[in-house]
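Project standup — Tuesday

K.O.: blocked on the structure for the chain from last sprint. Re-posting the sequence here as requested.
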Amino acid sequence: MRIVIAPDSFKGCKSATQVALAISEGVRRILPDAKITCIPMADGGEGTIEAIVMATGGRIIPVQSVDALGRPIQSFYGVLCNGITAVIEMAAASGIELLKPEERNPLLTSTFGTGLLLKAVMEAGFTEIIIGIGGSATNDGGAGMAQALGFGLLDKNGKPIGRGGGSLNNLHSIDRSRVDPLLGKVKITIASDVRNPLLGPSGATRIYGPQKGATPEMLEILEANLSHFSHILQNEFGVNFADFSGAGAAGGLGGGMMAFCSAEMASGFELINKLTRLEDHISKASLVFTAEGKIDSQTAYGKTVSGVAQLAKKYRVPVIALAAIVTDDVTELYKQGITSVFAIADRPMSIEESKSRTTELLAATSERIMRLYTGFKCK
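H.V.: unblocked you, prediction finished:
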């Protein structure tokens, strides 16, 4: 029996690799001789580097950067086995999981650390860069990233504006005289499955601001500031990036990268699907497992679980989805190809207990599912 295990990470708890291994353990308790292929997945957010590096036999390089509040941190980037392509996660510098809940304030948080990662990769000689932009703590439209790359974001007095979404209203002009010259020599691909525009009810601020610590009052400020920022970008670059699909990803970093770096947007899931040959493995499978920390009504719109389901549906392979939390209506996932969704908790428990027992719960749930599956298959 061939089984493919292709989960996303349980953010802030277990990596996609750890999740895959836990599910595999549960399966082998019932089918020790099963041919199991573990393919850790990501959609451009946390775990993107791990998934791509594992798939291509690449390596991870440590590098210094700063977090979303400007504090020095040890970060990293990945290198594919071709030696010319580097992979960056903005979450490894400007990610929300690097901040304590009480520190999250998108008026102050900045993508400057992500810009430092880009600069380090360019200076290391890589000419092709993939950047995953999920899991951000920011709402600055990529302004901090641009500042790190040498763009002068100036107020009406010709002085640099501050960092963070709360400073964008002070932007008056952009000085390109000190931009890193290497920027024009690299090809940058944005790996993201978020397709939100920059502004409006479905934009970066309204949809994602609250989870980054924005109060209702902050949301009004941030939306107005991003609107002002987008007008300056349009005047400077001659293009209205605000309406581009994906411009609102990562608090507007998607739009900022398209403007400042001439980056191209691509599906994070599709990139990893191609690199890992996921579809080829699924086409030969008898059963597929996928998983992520939380499955809800939004999972059907561009998340890993949705992507895995749609691939499996093409080949009529059943798909089991596991999650720590299952909420809302998941009917759309069933239409996309999910056979059934399971919450891994075996009784009511706190989030803290669930996190501490995630490996155990994933393995136990997978074991129970395989007992049921093999029981029916034997009749």
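K.O.: great, moving the ticket to review. Residues 216-237 form the longest helix (22 residues). DSSP finds 14 helices and 15 strands in the chain.
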